[in-house]
Amino acid sequence: MKKQLALALVLAAASTSAAAYEKLSHTYVEAGFAHQQAEVPVLAPAGVTVDDMKANGGFINGSVAVGEKFYVFGGYQKGKDDSIAVNFEGFGKIGEFEIDAQQAHAGVGYGHQLSDRVQWTGEVSFLRTRFKAKGDDITQDTARGDDYRASLGLRGNLARNFEGWIKANVTDGDMYDKEFSGTLGGLIKFNDSWGIVGEAEMGSDQKQYRLGVRWSF
Protein backbone atom coordinates (compact mmCIF):
# COMPACT_ATOMS: atom_id res chain seq x y z
CA MET A 1 0.00 0.00 0.00
CA LYS A 2 2.82 2.38 0.89
CA LYS A 3 4.60 1.55 -2.37
CA GLN A 4 1.41 2.18 -4.37
CA LEU A 5 0.89 5.51 -2.59
CA ALA A 6 4.51 6.54 -3.24
CA LEU A 7 4.14 5.63 -6.94
CA ALA A 8 0.92 7.64 -7.17
CA LEU A 9 2.66 10.66 -5.67
CA VAL A 10 5.55 10.35 -8.13
CA LEU A 11 3.16 10.13 -11.09
CA ALA A 12 1.18 13.10 -9.81
CA ALA A 13 4.38 15.14 -9.50
CA ALA A 14 5.45 14.14 -13.01
CA SER A 15 2.03 15.06 -14.37
CA THR A 16 2.20 18.48 -12.70
CA SER A 17 5.70 19.05 -14.09
CA ALA A 18 4.61 18.08 -17.61
CA ALA A 19 1.60 20.38 -17.39
CA ALA A 20 3.90 23.25 -16.43
CA TYR A 21 5.96 22.65 -19.56
CA GLU A 22 2.80 22.73 -21.70
CA LYS A 23 1.50 26.03 -20.33
CA LEU A 24 1.46 29.01 -22.70
CA SER A 25 2.45 31.92 -20.48
CA HIS A 26 1.68 35.53 -21.35
CA THR A 27 3.67 36.77 -18.35
CA TYR A 28 7.41 36.95 -18.97
CA VAL A 29 10.52 39.12 -19.31
CA GLU A 30 13.16 38.54 -21.98
CA ALA A 31 16.39 40.23 -23.05
CA GLY A 32 19.29 39.62 -25.40
CA PHE A 33 20.90 40.46 -28.75
CA ALA A 34 19.06 42.37 -31.51
CA HIS A 35 19.91 42.96 -35.17
CA GLN A 36 17.96 45.38 -37.36
CA GLN A 37 18.16 45.98 -41.11
CA ALA A 38 16.33 48.95 -42.62
CA GLU A 39 16.32 51.46 -45.42
CA VAL A 40 17.81 54.73 -44.16
CA PRO A 41 15.31 57.64 -44.39
CA VAL A 42 17.54 60.20 -46.15
CA LEU A 43 17.07 62.70 -48.98
CA ALA A 44 19.98 62.06 -51.35
CA PRO A 45 20.87 64.04 -54.52
CA ALA A 46 20.50 62.42 -57.95
CA GLY A 47 23.12 59.72 -58.50
CA VAL A 48 23.79 59.27 -54.78
CA THR A 49 22.69 56.11 -52.96
CA VAL A 50 22.94 55.08 -49.32
CA ASP A 51 23.41 51.49 -48.15
CA ASP A 52 20.82 49.91 -45.87
CA MET A 53 21.42 50.15 -42.14
CA LYS A 54 22.53 46.97 -40.35
CA ALA A 55 22.48 47.79 -36.64
CA ASN A 56 23.56 45.44 -33.85
CA GLY A 57 22.57 45.97 -30.23
CA GLY A 58 20.26 44.64 -27.54
CA PHE A 59 16.61 44.39 -26.57
CA ILE A 60 14.33 43.91 -23.57
CA ASN A 61 10.69 42.83 -23.86
CA GLY A 62 7.97 41.99 -21.38
CA SER A 63 4.36 40.85 -21.19
CA VAL A 64 1.81 40.56 -18.37
CA ALA A 65 -1.40 38.53 -18.49
CA VAL A 66 -4.57 40.43 -17.57
CA GLY A 67 -7.15 37.78 -16.77
CA GLU A 68 -7.35 34.55 -18.77
CA LYS A 69 -7.46 35.96 -22.30
CA PHE A 70 -5.94 39.46 -22.37
CA TYR A 71 -2.34 40.63 -21.92
CA VAL A 72 -0.35 43.85 -22.20
CA PHE A 73 3.16 43.93 -23.62
CA GLY A 74 5.99 46.28 -24.45
CA GLY A 75 9.68 46.49 -25.21
CA TYR A 76 12.69 48.52 -26.23
CA GLN A 77 15.65 47.83 -28.49
CA LYS A 78 18.71 49.82 -29.46
CA GLY A 79 21.45 49.20 -31.99
CA LYS A 80 24.22 50.90 -33.94
CA ASP A 81 25.72 50.68 -37.43
CA ASP A 82 29.17 52.30 -37.51
CA SER A 83 29.76 52.36 -41.28
CA ILE A 84 26.88 53.03 -43.67
CA ALA A 85 28.33 53.71 -47.12
CA VAL A 86 27.37 56.65 -49.32
CA ASN A 87 27.88 55.85 -53.00
CA PHE A 88 27.96 57.99 -56.15
CA GLU A 89 27.02 56.45 -59.47
CA GLY A 90 30.12 55.72 -61.52
CA PHE A 91 32.55 56.49 -58.67
CA GLY A 92 31.58 54.01 -55.95
CA LYS A 93 31.90 54.79 -52.27
CA ILE A 94 32.45 58.48 -51.51
CA GLY A 95 31.88 58.51 -47.75
CA GLU A 96 30.23 56.90 -44.77
CA PHE A 97 28.36 57.74 -41.58
CA GLU A 98 26.99 55.98 -38.51
CA ILE A 99 23.45 55.58 -37.15
CA ASP A 100 22.05 54.89 -33.71
CA ALA A 101 18.66 53.16 -34.03
CA GLN A 102 16.10 52.96 -31.23
CA GLN A 103 12.59 51.54 -31.16
CA ALA A 104 10.06 51.19 -28.36
CA HIS A 105 6.65 49.53 -28.52
CA ALA A 106 3.64 48.92 -26.28
CA GLY A 107 0.33 47.21 -26.90
CA VAL A 108 -2.49 44.92 -25.84
CA GLY A 109 -3.21 41.38 -26.99
CA TYR A 110 -5.96 38.77 -26.89
CA GLY A 111 -5.43 35.01 -26.90
CA HIS A 112 -8.15 32.47 -27.73
CA GLN A 113 -7.52 28.81 -26.97
CA LEU A 114 -8.13 26.54 -29.98
CA SER A 115 -6.96 23.37 -28.23
CA ASP A 116 -4.92 22.32 -25.21
CA ARG A 117 -1.72 23.26 -27.05
CA VAL A 118 -2.67 25.93 -29.61
CA GLN A 119 -4.17 29.42 -29.44
CA TRP A 120 -4.66 32.24 -31.90
CA THR A 121 -3.62 35.75 -30.93
CA GLY A 122 -4.64 39.24 -31.95
CA GLU A 123 -2.60 42.33 -31.04
CA VAL A 124 -2.63 46.09 -31.54
CA SER A 125 0.43 48.15 -30.62
CA PHE A 126 2.10 51.54 -30.84
CA LEU A 127 5.71 51.94 -32.07
CA ARG A 128 8.09 54.85 -31.64
CA THR A 129 11.25 54.78 -33.79
CA ARG A 130 14.29 57.05 -33.90
CA PHE A 131 17.34 57.08 -36.18
CA LYS A 132 20.20 59.41 -35.26
CA ALA A 133 23.03 59.90 -37.76
CA LYS A 134 26.56 61.17 -37.19
CA GLY A 135 29.03 62.02 -39.94
CA ASP A 136 30.39 64.66 -42.30
CA ASP A 137 27.92 66.68 -44.39
CA ILE A 138 24.86 65.41 -42.45
CA THR A 139 22.25 68.18 -42.71
CA GLN A 140 19.46 66.43 -40.79
CA ASP A 141 20.86 64.14 -38.13
CA THR A 142 17.65 62.74 -36.58
CA ALA A 143 14.58 61.03 -38.03
CA ARG A 144 11.80 59.92 -35.70
CA GLY A 145 8.21 58.83 -36.03
CA ASP A 146 5.22 57.06 -34.51
CA ASP A 147 3.42 54.09 -36.03
CA TYR A 148 0.60 51.67 -35.26
CA ARG A 149 0.56 47.92 -35.83
CA ALA A 150 -2.09 45.20 -35.98
CA SER A 151 -1.13 41.51 -35.80
CA LEU A 152 -2.87 38.14 -36.09
CA GLY A 153 -1.15 34.85 -35.41
CA LEU A 154 -0.97 31.36 -33.98
CA ARG A 155 0.99 30.20 -30.94
CA GLY A 156 1.42 26.67 -29.65
CA ASN A 157 3.49 23.97 -27.99
CA LEU A 158 5.11 22.00 -30.80
CA ALA A 159 6.88 19.70 -28.32
CA ARG A 160 7.12 19.27 -24.55
CA ASN A 161 9.98 21.76 -24.34
CA PHE A 162 9.47 23.81 -27.52
CA GLU A 163 6.97 26.58 -28.19
CA GLY A 164 6.54 28.33 -31.52
CA TRP A 165 4.53 31.21 -32.96
CA ILE A 166 3.82 32.93 -36.25
CA LYS A 167 2.19 36.31 -36.89
CA ALA A 168 1.11 38.47 -39.82
CA ASN A 169 1.55 42.21 -39.21
CA VAL A 170 0.56 45.45 -40.89
CA THR A 171 2.27 48.67 -39.73
CA ASP A 172 1.48 52.21 -40.81
CA GLY A 173 2.38 55.74 -39.75
CA ASP A 174 5.43 57.98 -39.96
CA MET A 175 8.23 55.44 -40.45
CA TYR A 176 6.28 52.56 -42.03
CA ASP A 177 4.06 52.95 -45.11
CA LYS A 178 1.38 50.26 -44.78
CA GLU A 179 4.14 47.65 -44.52
CA PHE A 180 3.16 44.01 -44.31
CA SER A 181 5.55 41.75 -42.41
CA GLY A 182 5.73 38.28 -40.93
CA THR A 183 7.02 37.23 -37.52
CA LEU A 184 8.37 33.75 -36.77
CA GLY A 185 9.53 32.84 -33.27
CA GLY A 186 10.43 29.96 -31.00
CA LEU A 187 11.18 29.22 -27.34
CA ILE A 188 13.30 26.31 -26.12
CA LYS A 189 12.21 25.63 -22.53
CA PHE A 190 14.72 24.40 -19.98
CA ASN A 191 11.96 24.29 -17.35
CA ASP A 192 8.69 26.08 -16.62
CA SER A 193 10.54 29.39 -15.94
CA TRP A 194 13.64 29.66 -18.13
CA GLY A 195 14.29 29.29 -21.83
CA ILE A 196 16.11 30.52 -24.93
CA VAL A 197 13.97 32.68 -27.23
CA GLY A 198 14.54 33.59 -30.87
CA GLU A 199 12.42 35.70 -33.20
CA ALA A 200 12.62 37.03 -36.76
CA GLU A 201 10.45 39.77 -38.24
CA MET A 202 10.68 40.19 -42.00
CA GLY A 203 9.11 42.99 -44.03
CA SER A 204 9.79 44.69 -47.35
CA ASP A 205 11.68 47.66 -45.85
CA GLN A 206 12.75 46.45 -42.40
CA LYS A 207 13.99 43.20 -40.90
CA GLN A 208 14.65 42.45 -37.23
CA TYR A 209 16.22 39.43 -35.52
CA ARG A 210 16.38 38.77 -31.79
CA LEU A 211 18.03 36.06 -29.67
CA GLY A 212 17.92 36.05 -25.89
CA VAL A 213 16.82 34.54 -22.59
CA ARG A 214 13.20 34.49 -21.37
CA TRP A 215 11.95 34.19 -17.79
CA SER A 216 8.29 33.18 -17.57
CA PHE A 217 6.38 33.46 -14.32
The number of distinct helices, counting runs of at least 4 residues, comes to: 1
Distance between the termini: 37 Å
Strand order of the largest sheet: 1-3-4-5-6-7-8-9-10-11
Q: Any guess at the CATH architecture?
A: Beta Barrel
- Gyration radius from CA atoms, angstroms: 22 Å
Secondary structure class reads mainly beta
Strand % is: over 45%
Assign an overall shape.
elongated
- Looking at the structure, the CATH topology is Porin
Q: Calculate the mean pLDDT score and round it.
A: 87
Give an account of the 3D structure:
The structure is a single chain. The protein is mainly β. Helix content is 10%, strand content 68%. It contains one helix and eleven strands; from the N terminus they run H-E-E-E-E-E-E-E-E-E-E-E. It has one helix at 2-22; strands spanning 28-38, 48-50, 53-66, 70-88, 92-113, 118-134, 142-159, 162-173, 179-189, 194-203, 206-216. The chain has a ten-stranded antiparallel beta barrel with strand order 1-3-4-5-6-7-8-9-10-11. The radius of gyration is 22 Å and the shape is elongated. Mean pLDDT is 87; it is low at 1-21.
